[in-house]
Amino acid sequence: LLLRWRRWKGLWAKVKAARQRQEQGLARMEKAVRGFREQHPSVKMVSILSLSLPELSKKLRDGSLPPEHVFYAYVGKALQITRETNCITEYMQESETQLQQAKPPGKLGLLYGVPVSIKDSINCQGHDSTLGFVKNINQPMAEDSVLVQVLKRQGAIPFVKTNVPQSLISFDCQNLIFGQTYNPLLYTRTPGGSSGGEGALIGGGGSILGFGTDVGGSLRFPAAFCGICALKPTGNRLSKKGVISGILGQKSVVAAVGPMAKDVESLALCMRALLCEDMFSLDSTVPPLPFNEEVYSSTQPLRIGYYETDFFTMPSPAMRRAVRETKKLLEDAGHTLVPFELTNVDYVTFNFCVRGMFADGCASFLKKFEGELERGSMGIFFWLAKSPNWLKTLLSWIAKPFVPRLSHILRSMRANTVDELWSLHHEIEESCHQFIAQWKRLNLDVMLCPMLGPALGIGYPGKLSVAVSYTILYNSLDFPAGVVPVTMVTDEDEEELKGYQGYFRDWWDRTLAKAFRGSVGLPVAVQCVALPWQEELCLRFMKEVETL
Prior knowledge:
single chain; Endocannabinoid_amidase; Amidase signature (AS) enzymes; Fatty-acid amide hydrolase 1; hydrolase; 22 helices; amidase activity; lipid metabolism
């Protein structure tokens, strides 16, 4: 007991130190901004913050806007937003030094002078990548991830790291070290996760471009919940070297790193900058595919598949309306829309995704929590995860007639033999080929899909892991998928929600109905999807949706 108490005390001391460092960083930001304002009282911060990324980068590169003005405008705004939402975990003071370094000789990078924010789990030299775990405090990274190296070579200035949920395997944004991050649009709502700090900071206007990761919707949830845009590329289009994932070595559900910004043109500019020789030489596992300008700027009419529901998670009235209204606008603009029949989403969710991620019987996942202070809202999950296979099978059998979805989850969390895992990988490949065959039969260019929304209340994502079905499908298939906000929840949507029952009418469906309530005025997005390696086409489609 004494040993446990000592260890517990030691962990709390680390948490306290990390929070102090966070506060000191914010104090440094405040001091730096105050100093700049005193020296440059005539600089109009508001007009700088109102520029889009393409406008801003043009002014920075042609010299009409000094990088210092932009930097301190965003440091000031980021400070305001983190005071409101608790989204920043660390201020990177070396960004001030990077700013002072003279212009590089020769051609300026596409992101010259642009301040960028970075998710906690993306390595930055000299800074922790905690993933919300106490054991990772005071473990500074030896080098930048490839993504951060390329950003710097393109002239960008990474200036803050942002908050995540403990372990990243969640679409909320809370951990014991830095606490809960709040949605900038409504503080009682989650910003989404796991790139929730990014969503809150960019949604609040404190960053013009940020980077996160996505293994089940972790870029797309925060973008949709905070009313901004994001792109989850094909898993290997951008380098993941130096990016820490929630479950190391897991290959059934494909993770990706991607950008988040207020608009689609910013995402396109970012991809243009990243898909360069530096990226391909620093990580030779990334295919050397530069940004395809021709595809992105094409104005050819598109053939677009669409569906309003996956028949697993019943869409909220606003989600359904978002797809319908977007479909109508696209048709009026001369595009062809074709219904796409989605089948077996329940099988994909349980058998490919849950089973794939926890194929070792949750051993790797549980290992991360050894010696940690808190397991968040995962109490019952931990108990189930730790249970032996025979007990998971028994409980699954007992639950089947009453709560079929719980039964499936329990069955999917059993440990697999190598033989079973290989069979699963084969089945996932076959399923992907079938999905592509259906896509090709309909001769589609892209697909319009629902995106979970509006933002759920804080604490709800922990109870609603089944609601990731709309997003995790495209991690399983490894297709590029972007999110664009298209509408807001209306009084009519709220009224219609009273009749929401879900497809299973179980505890999860009742909880989701509660989580959606009271959301008038909050943004709702759609997902835009393309085939693997077609990021430019995906962005072109997103741009079309945004424009309309």
